[in-house]
Amino acid sequence: MSMQQTEIAAASPAVNDAGMSPLHKMIFLVLLAFLLVLPFVVYPVFAMKIMCFALFAAAFNLLLGFGGLLSFGHAAYFGGASYVAAHAAKVWGLTPELSVLCGAAAAAFLGLVIGALSIRRQGIYFAMVTLAFAQMVYFFALQVPFTGGEDGIQSVPRGKLFGLISLENNISLYFFVLALTFAGILFLYRVVHSPFGQVLKAIRENEPRAISLGYNVNRYKLIVFVLSATFAGLAGAIKSQVFQLASLTDVHWAMSGEVVLMTLLGGMGTVFGPLLGAAIIVTMQNYLATFGAWVTIIQGVIFVIGVLLFREGIIGVISRWLKRPL
Amino acid sequence: MGQLLLGLINGAFYAILSLGLAVIFGLLNIINFAHGALYMAGAFVAWMLLNYVGIGYWPALILSPLIVGAFGILLERTMMSRLYKLDHLYGLLLTFGLALIIQGLFRNYYGISGLPYQIPSQLSGGQNLGFMFLPNYRGWVVVASVVVCFGTWFMIEKTRLGAYLRAATENPALVGAFGVNVPLLITLTYGFGVGLAGFAGVLAAPIYSVNPNMGADLIIVVFAVVVIGGMGSILGAIVTGYMLGIVEGLTRVFYPEGSAVVIFVIMAIVLLIKPEGLFGKEAR
């Protein structure tokens, strides 16, 4: 066991279980300051969209970057939760914070069922199994009445936070979204830098050895899968509140591909990579929206270039220059 | 009965596509996400040959897979060959990117409404079999797919070339030491596997309209088929393909709402009972 731990410690010298490294703390603070000013500079809905996808990508990165599991079906949790949250807000009339929690809980349950089945296969099969289950969720969403089929759930009310504060105003909604996504990302950071996260890395690096050290590998894999699904769901639930819409786009396999792309572009296995990747991809989609199919083509090209030449991602490269984990 | 035939036809496409995936995976250790896109490209090439050059169905049935196969060889040489030493997952991500590009390009130039492709005149009409009406073309699709699938099986299991291929799957370094050009074998295998997808595309063109999205949803079902069957055996991939097509057709008769998800449900059950797949040898 000691050998395993020294190896991990050697691989990431700045990581300290007791708390955040000063560099990371500084980056998070700068990021928070930036986000506090952002809604007064750019259109708040656009900024909220970036934050939702940043949380989504961070949750996905927990699974891929730190757990070493490539799920090609994360749209199921993102989109599934957005349907449940929209339904809770519109039909059950719940307050925003409860609707969002309902969505995340639904994603956790979905993650538990799909995860328990998927971790029975490894590597490339795991990716195919998660993709196939996500497609099943998609067909389910297409057919059952409560999702509204092709129309989705439209004009979801934003409601009043705790029944008191109206979120109809974009700025007040923005701070609600900021609080939730930022807290989510910090929580994921904490998970990665906990003893649990260290075991995850051990499993990623050498699964047979982790087993021989007595770790119940499958339980760790399932827990990280459920955590990842839950936070992906939280992101999707928030998105349905921001856009007042839950639609098939969010459960489609293309969405699963997008989150992989964000993580790959930013740098998988880095803390800040997925956040940057999400910001870049969402911004790109925003400015290229008028070009229609070209967005897909450009995403494909980024994938190909990323895989062939640029596997560390943007933050990965910067991190190598600075010789510090980011 | 009609639904059963429809199921058999879907099964024919599942079989050809999962066969191609299995052959490619065996040698390249890459799951070819672009398979669906190349199937779609096969249908489009047939349509283009007809509308731009005036080449009809029968020559296209040969030419289109060759063109798609050549394109696949180009992709393999320029891109995939760089990834063999890395984790398999990068191969999946690369081919996913390629699929996005190919689909995006066709969607950009041909829209998403779909283009018609006529059934060749020799195969129009149908036979009344007494208990059901069999359109000639659909009968032909089933026959052609069976011939191609078992031809491939024969080539891999019974010929010298197939023996090289199986040996290279087991131990490429050793086969190379015996003087076989393994990189060339890998390239040709990818070209062949992709050519199979192109062939399926041409077969599908007159049945379904030629549409940039035709491959995208199909490939995910084929992935499920591959997980159910396991990629250990060629015959397993073929049999699972037909079997699941028929099961899907039967579900459409008895419980139509479930037909879209039945294959995924079967996949879940197989994962619970026999995680390595029906014909799988070991979990990779």
How would you describe this structure to a colleague?
The complex is a heterodimer of chains A (326) and B (284). By secondary structure, chain A is mainly alpha-helical. Chain A has helices at residues 2-11, 22-37, 44-66, 75-90, 96-118, 123-143, 170-192, 195-205, 207-212, 217-243, 253-266, 273-288, 294-309, 313-322; strands spanning 160-161, 165-166. Chain A has a domain at 43-252. Chain A is built from 14 helices and two strands; from the N terminus they run ααααααββαααααααα. Residues 1-17 of chain A have low confidence and may be disordered. By secondary structure, chain B is mainly alpha-helical. In chain B, 71% of the residues lie in helices and 2% in strands. Chain B has helices at 2-28, 35-53, 57-78, 88-110, 136-158, 160-170, 172-177, 182-204, 214-229, 234-254, 262-273, and strands spanning 126-128, 133-135. In chain B, strands 1-2 form a two-stranded antiparallel ribbon. In chain B, strand 1 (126-128) and strand 2 (133-135) form a beta hairpin. Classes of the chains: A mainly alpha (326), B mainly alpha (284). Chain A binds chain B through residues 70, 72, 117-118, 120-125, 127-129, 131-133, 135-136, 139-140, 142-143, 253, 257, 260, 264, 292-297, 299-304, 306-308, 311, and chain B through 25, 31, 79, 82-83, 86, 88-90, 92-94, 96-105, 107-108, 216-217, 220-221, 223-224, 226-227, 257, 260-261, 264-265, 267-268, 271-272, 275, 283-284.
Secondary structure topology:
The complex is a heterodimer of chains A (326) and B (284).
Chain A: H1 2-11, H2 22-37, H3 44-66, H4 75-90, H5 96-118, H6 123-143, E1 160-161, E2 165-166, H7 170-192, H8 195-205, H9 207-212, H10 217-243, H11 253-266, H12 273-288, H13 294-309, H14 313-322
Antiparallel strand pairs in A: 1-2
Chain B: H1 2-28, H2 35-53, H3 57-78, H4 88-110, E1 126-128, E2 133-135, H5 136-158, H6 160-170, H7 172-177, H8 182-204, H9 214-229, H10 234-254, H11 262-273
Helix pairs in contact in B: 1-5, 1-8, 1-9, 1-10, 2-3, 2-4, 2-8, 2-9, 3-8, 5-6, 9-10, 9-11
